[in-house]
């Protein structure tokens, strides 16, 4: 497939994308101010692997919608709270985060929602203002494993949220995100420290290239794909191989059958070092 920019791949017939760039001037606190950074200053070595996937939600399928930011953040926040010993009764709802993200971005509140994607900054702002709505609180009762999840999402992706839906999550706010800089010489150790401390990472990747699109897991870990980010995912874990190389576990939102067996993939350090952009680690304020 020909290389495409994110504006062109929205509404892809098989895989939805939807990453919008952060507005100019967007600033996040650096990783050095996150509690996970203390692990890098400790005399003890980092563990050889993390196990956050044990607390992750099932893999969602965003279908042809542009809701990757909602799905990436929902996976990250749900997993982080569980890893920190504050598990949610059920996973966060990606559709709600996506709807609120677009509400943050539109200048005119009377303008209808359009399935045009969202930026990480808008998603972070939405989580800080309105918090997290849970699957168990969703009137539709849909979960990631519901057979009708994808069809329902595609049919209702532009539904406006009710006041009740907004108020439900107001006591579960995520007040900020720290950034792991793209060009940091310590990017890989910072990723490992974050994951070792139970903080999965949301990040943008280049998913519109052939290598990412066609990856089925049969050829070993996924290597560097490209530097034109158009999709938002969650990195859950790392492991150090016997030869000293480090692999990272990525959770996608393209279902469990259309991209790799199970919808997750191990990726190489080079994939993370050169192909992960705008990597964010959550700071959590109120106990659910």
What would you say this structure looks like, in words?
This protein has 288 residues and is α+β, with helices and mostly antiparallel strands. It has one domain (11-20, 47-283): Cysteine proteinases (Cathepsin B, Chain A). It is built from nine helices and seven strands. It has a seven-stranded mixed β-sheet. Strand 4 (231-240) and strand 5 form a beta hairpin. It starts with 5 loop residues before the first helix and ends in a 5-residue tail after the last strand. Residues 1-13 have low confidence and may be disordered.
What's the helix-strand series?
HEHHHHHEHEHEEEHE
- Secondary structure class reads alpha+beta
Number of strands: 7
Strand numbers in spatial order across the main sheet: 1-2-7-3-4-5-6
- Can you tell me the number of structural domains? 1
Oligomeric nature of the chains: single chain
Summed up, the helix count is 9
Strand content: 5-15%
The CATH architecture designation is Alpha-Beta Complex
Rg over CA atoms:
18 Å
Shape: globular
Mean pLDDT: 90
The top level CATH class name: Alpha Beta
End-to-end separation in angstroms reads 44 Å
Helix coverage percent: 25-40%
> Main sheet?
7 strands, mixed
CATH topology, which one? Cathepsin B, Chain A
Gist of the model:
The model is unreliable at 1-13 (pLDDT under 50).
Q: What are the salient characteristics of this protein?
A:
288 residues; alpha+beta; Cathepsin B, Chain A; seven-stranded mixed sheet; 9 helices; 7 strands; 27% helix; 14% strand; disordered N terminus
Give a topology summary.
Elements: H1 6-9, E1 29-30, H2 68-83, H3 94-105, H4 120-130, H5 149-156, H6 163-168, E2 176-180, H7 187-196, E3 201-205, H8 210-213, E4 231-240, E5 246-251, E6 264-268, H9 269-275, E7 277-283
Parallel strand pairs: 1-2
Antiparallel strand pairs: 2-7, 3-4, 3-7, 4-5, 5-6
Helix pairs in contact: 2-3, 3-4
